[in-house]
Amino acid sequence: AAEAPSAEAKANACSAFQVVTNAVALQTHANAGTDPAAIQAVAANARLAMAGGGTYLLAKTGPGTPPELADAIRSFAGSLQDIAINALAGVTNDNPAQAARLRDAEATNATIAALCK
To answer: Among 8, 48, 49, 65, which one has the highest count of C-beta atoms within 10 angstroms of its own C-beta?
Structure first.
């Protein structure tokens, strides 16, 4: 049987969500200047924040996490991983499928933020 939702599980999931959101925001908005190597380094850190953040969220979302929150976090984690791997494969943000992934991730991020209030 599934563990009953608990305040501690919700707090842990929401805390992980906040850390990942902060990491992704920090790494995707870093200023790389004009040096091509710096631009690649900033892009790599952004992709790492998304890929690692997705894995971290999944690990920190325990069985006692309220189902609506857990489902949203799993969706968001998957979106982050999909965005990251596609970016690593050279898919740019203006690609329609990648742009849709980014929009979906933003929408799910807002849902989770509301659930974590």
So the answer is: 65
Q: How many CB atoms lie within 10 A of CB 53?
A: 24
Sequence-ordered strand ranges (E) for 1-117: none
The helix-helix angle for 67-88 and 36-60 (nearest 10°) equals: 150
Of 28, 30, 17, the closest CA to residue 72 belongs to 17
Reduced to 3 states, what is the DSSP secondary structure of residue 4? coil
d(CA 35, CA 17) in angstroms, rounded, equals: 32
CA distances (Å), origin 95, targets 58, 76, 87, 90, 91: 27, 20, 10, 10, 7
Whole-angstrom distance, CA of residue 103 vs CA of residue 109 = 10
The token pair at 17 is 């969500």
Q: CA-CA distance, 8 to 72, in Å (whole number)? A: 17
pTM: 0.91
